[in-house]
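Record 1 of the preview.
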Amino acid sequence: MPSKSLGETLLRGAARITAPLAQHDLARRVARGDEDASRVDERRGKPGLPRPVGTLIWFHVKDLKGALNLVGIIGQCRSEMPEISYLVTTQDQIQDFVFALRMPEGVLHQYAPFDKPAAVERFLDHWMPDICVWVDDVLMPVMNSEVSTRNIPAILANVADVDQANPQFRWLPSIGKPVLRSFNQVLVSDEVALKQVKHFGADATVMGILCEEALALPHDEKRRSRLAKQLDGRPVWLAAKISSEEIDLILEAHRTALRHTHRLMLIIVPADPEETDRIAEGCKTIGLHFKHSSDLDDLPPRTDVIIAKGFDGLGLWYQMAAVCFLGGSLVERGGHPPLEAANLGSAIMHGPHVDNYADIYLRLRDAGAAIEVASVSSLVEAVTELVIPDRAAEMAHAGWMVSSEGADATDALVEAIWDHLPMGAPL
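->
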C-alpha cells in the first residue's frame, strides 16, 4: 500500500475537520434547488443503486455534457466486451431523463460524494470499481488519493486546464503533485495542458478533445448496391423516426416536392413500427405509389415512397438518402439523435423542437450540416434545394466532420482503458 505524503496527511485531516461544513453547504444547495433532495445520500457516499456483478468501469465527469462525451467511449467498449458494467458519477446535478435518453442503455448514474474521508470510503467500499476514469479537470484529492491507496488503476483524461481548475495546487504544491502522480496515465487535450501537467511532475500524452459521438449503424452493402441499381440515380430523401402527428405532414411535403423534382423518392421510417399501415393509407389517400421495404425485389418506376418498418435498416436508409429529415421535431417530441445520420453521410433537416439534443443540433447548424424547417412549405423548399448533389455533398461532409471530431480522442481513451483494466477482473 503506497505511503501517504505529509501533504496528503494534512489534507485528510483538514477534510475531516471541515466535513460538517460540507453537510451545511449541502442543505443550502438542496434549499436552492441545486441538489436533488431525493438523492442527497449519494453525496454522503451512500449508494442509491446496487453494484452490478462483475467488472465495473467507473467514469467521473463534471456535468451532463461531460457524461454525454462518454457515449462513443462506452459504446465502443461495450461492442468489444458487452459483459462489462458502467457507472458515471457527476459533480453537478443533471437532467436524469436526458442522461437515460442519450447514454447507452444500462449505464448507471450517481452523484459524486463529498471529497471527505468517510463519504469517499463508503462510496469505494460499495462500488469497488475495477478502474477509475477521471474525465474532469477538477480533482478530488481525498478521493484520488484513496483510489491510489486501494490500488485501483486510474486514468485522468481530457485535461484542458488543471491549473485553473485546482487553484489550491498553486499554494499547496505538496498536495497537487502527489494527486496528479497518483494516476496511472494522464491524457491531455493539447500541448498547453501537457506543459501544465508536466509542471506538476507528472507524465502525460496528448489525446485531443472528447466530443459526443455515435457509433456507426450497421448496413447491408449488398442490399445497398442492389437497391441503388433499382433506383437508377433517382434523387432520394429520408424521413426518419417520424412521429404519428408528422406522418401526414411528411407525405404532403413529398407530394408537393414531386412537382419540383422529377422522380423524387421518399423513404419513410416511422418512430412506431405499427404506423406502417397508416402511412400506406395516407399514400393511397393523396395518390402516392408506395412499396414496403420488405418487398423491394421489384421496384416499379412509378414508386414514390418506400415505407420501412423498424430501425434495423436505418443505417442503409441513411446511406441511400442524400438528405434526411429527423422526426419528432415538427411537433413537441424533443427530436431524435442526429449524429448517426451525419456519420453516414446524410445532410440533415429538422424541425424546431429538438430540446433533447439541442447542443448537437447547434453544432451541426454552426458547421453548415443541418437546416431547421418549421412547416410543410419550408420542408419542401429544403428538400428541393438539398437533393441537388453538390449541395447535399457539402452539407454531408460538414456533418461527417462534426460526427467524427472526437474520434481520435475516443480511440486514445478506449485504448488506455484496455491497457489498465486489470486482467483478472471478473466478467
